[in-house]
Design a protein that fits this description.
Blueprint lengths: L8 H12 L20 H15 L5 H4 L5 H20 L4
Helix pairs in contact: 1-2, 1-4
Length: 93
């Protein structure tokens, strides 16, 4: 994915699927990352690193660790991406 395009749900799900070695088609938005998909703390850190690298964003670890579902992760990634892109192109105040 180019850093010029906003992350889509498919991108986030693909990252989760790659890290957990499962088919993206089997991942639902309501799946809980830990309980349903079996994501442990190492896989969580790997996901955050992947998101940070692929989207060129800085992620607050404390905030990211509060994510529960795949939908939470998608919303979080989109929000962080938007905020940091607006900040980069935004005001000089």
């Amino acid at each position: 994915m180019s850093t010029h395009e906003a992350p889509t749900r498919e991108h986030v799900v693909a990252m989760v699927a790659k890290i957990l070695k499962v088919e993206a088609a089997k991942i639902n938005g309501t799946d809980r990352l830990r309980e349903d998909l079996g994501m442990d703390s190492l896989a969580s850190l790997e996901l955050l690193s992947c998101i940070s690298d692929e989207l060129d964003v800085d992620i607050e670890l404390d905030e990211a660790m509060e994510l529960v579902t795949v939908d939470d992760a998608c919303a979080f990634v989109n929000r962080v991406y938007r905020e940091q892109r607006q900040g980069a192109s935004g005001s000089s105040s």
